[in-house]
UniProtKB/TrEMBL annotation:
GO BP terms, alphabetized: transmembrane transport
Organism: Labedella populi
PANTHER family for this protein: TRANSPORT ATP-BINDING PROTEIN
UniProt entry keywords in alphabetical sequence: ATP-binding, Nucleotide-binding, Transport
Residue ranges annotated for the ABC transporter domain, each copy included: 13-269
Name used for this protein in its record: ATP-binding cassette domain-containing protein
Lineage: Bacteria, Bacillati, Actinomycetota, Actinomycetes, Micrococcales
GO molecular function, one term: ATP binding
InterPro entries: AAA+_ATPase (IPR003593), ABC_transp_ATP-bind (IPR050319), ABC_transporter-like_ATP-bd (IPR003439), ABC_transporter-like_CS (IPR017871), P-loop_NTPase (IPR027417)
Keyword Transport attached: yes
Superkingdom: Bacteria
One Pfam family, short name: ABC_tran
Length: 288
């Protein structure tokens, strides 16, 4: 199991013995979604988080992005009831809502189903540029256009997409627009919940490649919550496996599948193709 050895300041993310509850609501009682989870992510590292449905992956992602502090309509917010979470040097458990704008400047959150949350009345260019203009209304328009075009290009979206509205795009294209929006401010930390949902196999490698580019430049770290074993293989690095809110394994994705450390991993190993047969090589070969 991954032990937290470094101080919070020297790692991009430190999660130390964290437990998270959903408070009682309606006829449901309080529910422990994350139970004593520890892991850390170094600068220059991309960590995968996998686990079956309901294992606590999205809750971990929400906590890392300080999403529990945001107003979310009727949605019940999770609460950190034990342990400590540091992201980019911020102590998330004791953070106040008023600190979110500063926190969000460096920490981007691609939430689950982000493709469905694109503003319907805005063009793709307006959607991707929005986080930049929210920071600086007077941002130079020509520079902004180049920035948006570059991001879309990185995600294999044609330039013509800039003037399109979300409803004119496929689900996979909308997801790529959501990824571009998450990267618009050049975040130091990216928390991505199911980033490749709906994305075609042929462009999955684009997501791995853009993360790899940022990783190599340094001062960047990411957490990918995903069911997508091929994405985890393409990204490389360590993966944390969750089951019922607890960590049941840490290692490379194929190391974990081979380890059979937990019945969940054994079942998964039987369900997925071995690395030699996965299509990622194909995708990499066809990517520009
Ligand atoms: N708003 C909520 N209110 C109460 N319980 C919740 C809420 N959201 C999630 N849970 C519960 O917390 C646990 C962890 O859920 P979570 O969404 O983090 O799992 P997950 O691994 O991301 O699942 P999936 O892969 O289906 O997205 C589950 O038992 C879930 O039912």
């Amino acid at each position: 199991m991954d032990r937290v050895t470094a101080s919070p300041d020297t790692r991009a993310i430190v999660v130390d013995d964290v437990s998270v509850d959903f408070p009682p609501h309606g006829i449901s009682g309080a529910h422990r979604a994350v139970d004593g989870v520890s892991f850390s992510v170094g600068w220059g590292e991309v960590l995968g988080v996998m686990g079956e449905s309901g294992s606590g992956k999205s809750t971990v992602a929400r906590i890392l992005a300080a999403d529990h502090l945001r107003r979310a309509g009727q949605n019940v917010a999770p609460s950190i009831v034990g342990g400590a979470v540091h992201v980019n040097g911020s102590a998330v458990r004791s953070m106040r809502r008023r600190s979110l704008p500063v926190f969000d400047f460096d920490v981007a959150f691609l939430r689950q189903n982000a493709a469905d949350t694109l503003e319907a009345e805005r063009t793709v260019a307006e959607i991707v540029a929005a986080p930049i203009l929210e920071r600086d209304r007077r941002y130079d328009r020509a520079t902004l256009d180049v920035r948006v075009a570059t991001l879309l290009d990185e995600l294999f979206l044609p330039l013509g997409t800039m003037s399109a509205y979300p409803y004119e795009l496929s689900a996979g294209q909308r997801q790529r627009v959501a990824i571009a929006r998450a990267l618009a401010l050049d975040p130091k930390v990216l928390i991505a919940d199911e980033p490749t949902a709906g994305i075609d196999v042929s462009v999955r490698s684009a997501v791995a490649d853009l993360v790899e580019r940022r990783r190599r430049i340094g001062d960047f770290a990411a957490v990918f919550v995903t069911h997508d074993i091929d994405l985890l293989r393409a990204v490389g690095g360590r993966v944390v496996a969750l089951h019922s809110g607890s960590v049941v394994g840490v290692g490379s994705v194929d190391g974990l599948l081979e380890s059979a450390e937990h019945p969940y991993l054994t079942a998964l190993a039987h369900a997925v193709a071995p690395p030699a047969r996965h299509e990622n090589r194909e995708a990499r070969r066809t990517s520009p």
